[in-house]
Amino acid sequence: MSFDRLLEDLEGSSKMLDFRFENSDIPMYLIIRSLLLQTIINKDFNLSSSHVDKKKSFIGILKYIFYTIKSNLFLAPKKDVIIFSSGIVNVVEDGKYINRLYDSFNSLYPEKTQIIESSTKMSYLLPKKEKIYFKDLIDILIILGSKFIRIKRNDRLNIDKLIEYIKNSPNINCDELTYEGLKTMLLKMSKQLNLAISLYKFFLKMKKPKIIILENAHYGGRYIPLIIAAKELGIKTAEYQHGYVGLTHYAYNYAQNIFNFIEQYLPKYLLTHGKYWSDRIRTPSHKIEIGLPSLSLRINNLQISNTDSKRILFISGGTVYQQLNQFIELIVDDLTILGYELILRPHPSEMPMFEQRYGNLIQKGVVLDTKALYETLKNMPIVVGMEISTVLFEAVCFTNRVYLVDNDYTRFCEPKIGFLTFANKNDLIESIKKDYSMGIDANYFWDSNWKENYKNFIEKIIGISNAK
Fold first, then answer.
1. Which of 323, 357, 367, 395 could form a disulfide with 383 if both were Cys (CB 3.0 to 4.6 A apart)?
2. Strands (E) located in 163-309
């Protein structure tokens, strides 16, 4: 299966967008699109979810309720720039959590910017370095309020028609459980949609921002009501790249023939980390290269010391953890004999299940790494991945020996990428022995001029001044 063929099957005709919610022009397909594409790709390549749920304690639930109310978004001050962020992008620095994606932008316009975060699995990462407000209260109000709203008859009919249309699309073979999940998602949105738009409008009228910057906006679904509310109020909208986006990322690549039909439901601007990413994604949003401040600032301050080290860092993105586990188990003895220390860095969302997923590797001497990413990378001469991850691209700033397995899935994701590749255990060992290296310009991935780029966007395009 090729990604372009998948897009053609689903979006080759704009008829997929004909099924809409009553009293709105919103295509139902955009609500379920990301989930549908992700499910198809996961099934085709036998991928797992990187996100692992962890049961919350009673005290944990009480703390969640307390901070949801105490620092809810309605209490946030009026600012020209409101950034809606996930909580998972926080990292610890000097005993406090910082937002690695947005704190640098906030520092340029501290009097003009407010960050509003969502919880991470009903938990807040505290204490914070900056004053942060939380978005969860409005999500809870939408869910509770929707309990008193009936699903419209026409919505039920159109939902059934859309699901049937998808079932009859060529080369789309999902199981009934998937279709039921898509239907449930649409039925919930039928009840929540207008309420969500109204609540977001109420919030935005209170705060009067000139622009909102969203995370994950291209995923559609629950982000669409906020985008609609902002655009109807004349507030500019943008999304800042938060991770890997590439040729086949299902959320950031749309069939070009539907651009005119969907641009009103996507942010006007998509701010990327560099030209590489802008060149690879297909969206009607205007792409503007900004950079990744957290990476550029750390590189300037770090002393890279990996030249004589015999360490190999294995990166997990969480979706092929079984294959990664099996591969490390096969190769650990061979690399240990060669004098190498093996380090494994799990995806942050894997940590609740780390023992179950990788406990056997720890027993074999593999070292678990949970330190700040760049502190780890500066000491790693070799980085290895079994799936596409932004960490591999970040590693290019620290070493010229970044390996990616060559298989159907990685070729599906990035057919031409420039990393060193290996097909199996022996292939990787031989490449390491021969000290192969690659020639990739890190600036193509990561625009180092982030400060001027962001100031230009905020001041010249959005019209906000008084930078720090």
1. 395
2. 211-214, 236-240, 269-272, 286-289
Structural domain including 12 reads 1-292+447-468
Cα dist from 365 to 110, 181, 373, whole Å: 46, 41, 21
Residues 141 and 248 in one domain: yes
Bridge partners (DSSP) listed for residue 133: 116
Give mean pLDDT, residues 199-215. Answer: 98
Q: What is the pTM of this model?
A: 0.94
Which CATH number does the domain housing residue 406 bear? 3.40.50.2000
CB distance 409 to 389 below 8 Å:
no
In a shared domain, residues 463 and 436: no
Cis peptide bond prior to 415, omega within 30° of 0: no
273 and 391 belong to one structural domain: no
Residue 236, strand partner residues: 211
Same domain, 115 and 224: yes
H/E element, 134: strand 133-134
Q: Is 110 helix (H, G, I), strand (E, B) or coil?
A: coil
Sequence-distant (6+) residues with CB within 8 A of 18 are 27
What's the number of domains the chain is made of?
2
pLDDT in tens, 259-303: 999 999 999 999 999 999 999 999 999 999 999 999 999 887 776
Query: What local confidence, expressed as pLDDT, does residue 146 receive?
Result: 97
Backbone conformation region of residue 365, classed left if phi is above 0, alpha if psi is from -120 to 50, else beta = left
Beta strands 286-289 and 269-272: pairing type?
parallel
Place 352 in a pLDDT band, splitting at 50, 70 and 90. Answer: confident
Would you call 284 exposed, middle or buried from its count of C-beta atoms within 10 A (0-12, 13-18, 19+)? middle
Looking at the fold, whether 274 and 379 belong to one and the same domain comes out as: no
Which SS3 state, helix, strand or coil, does residue 252 take? coil
